[in-house]
Amino acid sequence: MTTLTRRGFLLAASAGLATLALPSFAAPKSLPRLIIKQAGSETISFGYHSAGPEEGRPVVLLHDFAYDIHSYAEVSQILAAQGFRVIVPYLRGHGTTRFIDRSLAHSGEPAALGSDVIALLNVLDTPEAVIGGFGWGARAARAYAALKPSRCVGLVAVDGFTAAPALARSGAARRNAAHQLWQTNSPAWHFDEALFARSAKAFDNPDFAAVIDHAYRYQRGEAAGLPQYEADEQKLAASAAIAKPLITLQGSASGIPPVGEAGADHRRIEGAGHNIPLEAPQAFANAITELVRNGKWRT
């Protein structure tokens, strides 16, 4: 199995960053199994969970690679109870999200992830939304906002721009690698093995290795931009700053360094690691709720 590292260290409090004092959050040992629906674009069939009333303000929640939609099991319930329409898709290469066109390049670059969000919302006839994500989910959220700024009401991002490691291809080795990531990313969080096992099922997707491998090579400069995403990549690169309300969250016990972004409302969540939606669901839900309530909606 490939040795896996992800700059695993605890972050000290940074001067000038707002600290959000919250009680300690612990993920329950049992989370509800989220019901999955499928919605297809011309190229990809997306697996996703939805909650809340159809007429509610749309919220899209995006997980990191080597995690899955169950990171949002509690967050989605909290937001749905407030009358929001919550959409939680599997990232490409995870769960039941599948490439319909098998010849389509299995890109793992940011613009591809952001384009997937656009495609899903088009299928669901959703013109705009508040987007939240951690890790790759945060990268996808930023890409969506850069590619379609008029359709992004606000962003909540946790530990964006995390690197993709080279993951083993075999099932058992792949799960061991992901398990190590969970420990490295949240070193102070003693997660329940049943929770990990539930998420690990999402890594059995036949496209998982290809997508992660491409992301790894892309970040190392070993993979050229793929033709179907070149235009989007140019737009994304040109958008150095996203002119949208942005809340960034950082767990005080996260194994991943924060990303400094001009104009962001940065909040430090005491005791949490990388997987803030699962480790501190109320804190994540509060940030989403704030943007939904204060956002400038066109529709």
Number of helices: 9
In the CATH hierarchy, the third-tier topology is known as Rossmann fold
Level-2 CATH architecture: 3-Layer(aba) Sandwich
Low-confidence stretches: 1-25, 225-233
Number of strands: 10
What is the mean predicted local confidence, pLDDT? 82
Instruction: Characterize the biggest β-sheet.
Output: 10 strands, mixed
CATH class: Alpha Beta
In whole angstroms, how far apart are the ends? 49 Å
Q: Taking Cα atoms only, what radius of gyration do you get, to the nearest Å?
A: 17 Å
Structural class: alpha/beta
Shape: globular
Query: How many domain regions?
Result: 1
- Strand proportion, as a percent range, falls in 15-25%
Topology as a string of helices (H) and strands (E): EEEEHEEHEHEHHHHEEHH
Considering DSSP H and I runs of 4 or more, what fraction of the residues is helical? 25-40%
Q: Considering the protein shown, what is the CATH homologous superfamily?
A: Alpha/Beta hydrolase fold, catalytic domain
